[in-house]
Amino acid sequence: MLRKKIAIVVNNSWSAWNFRANLAFAFKKFGYQVVFISPYDRYSKNIKKHFEFQDVSINSKGINPIEDLKLIYNLYKVYKNVRPDIICHYNIKPNIYGTIAANILKIPSISNIAGLGSLFINQNFITKIAKSLYKFSQKKAIKIFFQNKNDFKMFVDEKLVQKDKCEVLPGSGVDIEKFKPVKKKDNGVFKFLLISRMLWAKGVKDFVEAAKLIKERYQNVDFQLLGYLDMESPTAISKKQMDIWVNEGFVNYLGDSDDVRVEITKADCIVLPSFYREGTPRVLLESASMQKPIITTNTVGCRDVVNDGVNGYLCEEKNPRDLADKMEKILNLTNEQRNAMGKAGRRKIVKEFDETIVISKYIEAVEAINRDIN
């Protein structure tokens, strides 16, 4: 008897490898074949060492309806060729158009709505279209996972999904064995680190403005930015703008990294002043798991990782002065108090956000679908 095949569909191979590989290995352990379907990039080679891989072109930022219809057709062709028994979709376009393609072929699918991005920051005509597409497509999904209660509530309240097929996960979870505390070597410089794609909506400008305020009053404080300059996104920060900030001397840009643990280890506090419509930011989970105090905005998704005053601080969105005030609070804590915050964060992650919780929910969902199929 052939093993059943699960397809995991993601809008880029970097995300597929870094965030979905452990789930794929778990499926494999349970006896399933696994195929990844995503656009080819340098991380696709890592995937191909362990799993079947199919390249498909997905313009995650585009809003051209002709291009999106073509995506449905392309996913349909790939699904028909690969013949998976179950498909797990991630990201906006796979969730919408992948679910439609899967339904045409009568393949059961699972959606994962991991935050709504910049599309839902300012409600406009495009947002209305996106909601209509979600409502149409998600009727055809067998199971829908959300990464925070706010998104789940919004989708249910606006009748975009059927409540009985939905479940809220603790974000995408974190590998607590991979992201373990590592003692920082103290060089006398206190480091605030922001890790994200360099998008305006991630609060990068607010981080820079807060850095200016702190540096007026404190010495031996370093402000660092880590993450790629996503030039394809209309909300991306340009290289020219980044160079201006760096040349002003308030922040250092570290580029991007294949292993964020290295830079998290060197930092004293992780900051994400995002007003992007997040799921549950992976970098906050990873940083808290490594026992770092967190400063983030009191917004959807972000607030789920921080108990204010316990393992970090919540700040107002789009408010550099309030962000600077929270940074100053962190600076004025004793080493013992900051260590206690870090330990509280680690305990929270282990209890609430362990990746094994997410994986077990997926195994449970897949097994239920299999029982229905059989």
How do you describe this structure in short?
The protein is α/β, with parallel strands linked by helices and 374 residues long. The chain has helices at residues 13-29, 44-48, 65-82, 92-104, 125-138, 149-157, 204-215, 239-248, 261-266, 282-289, 320-331, 335-352, 355-373, and strands at 5-9, 33-38, 52-55, 86-90, 109-113, 143-146, 166-168, 190-195, 221-226, 252-253, 269-272, 294-297, 312-315.
Structural features, described:
The chain has 13 helices and 13 strands. The protein is an alpha/beta fold and 374 residues long. The strands form 2 sheets. It has a 7-stranded parallel beta sheet, sandwiched between helices. A 6-stranded parallel beta sheet has the order 10-9-8-11-12-13, with helices on both faces. Helix 4 (92-104) packs parallel to helix 5 (125-138). The two termini are 13 Å apart.
Question: What's the SSE blueprint?
Answer:
Blueprint: E1 5-9, H1 13-29, E2 33-38, H2 44-48, E3 52-55, H3 65-82, E4 86-90, H4 92-104, E5 109-113, H5 125-138, E6 143-146, H6 149-157, E7 166-168, E8 190-195, H7 204-215, E9 221-226, H8 239-248, E10 252-253, H9 261-266, E11 269-272, H10 282-289, E12 294-297, E13 312-315, H11 320-331, H12 335-352, H13 355-373
Parallel strand pairs: 1-2, 1-4, 2-3, 4-5, 5-6, 6-7, 8-9, 8-11, 9-10, 11-12, 12-13
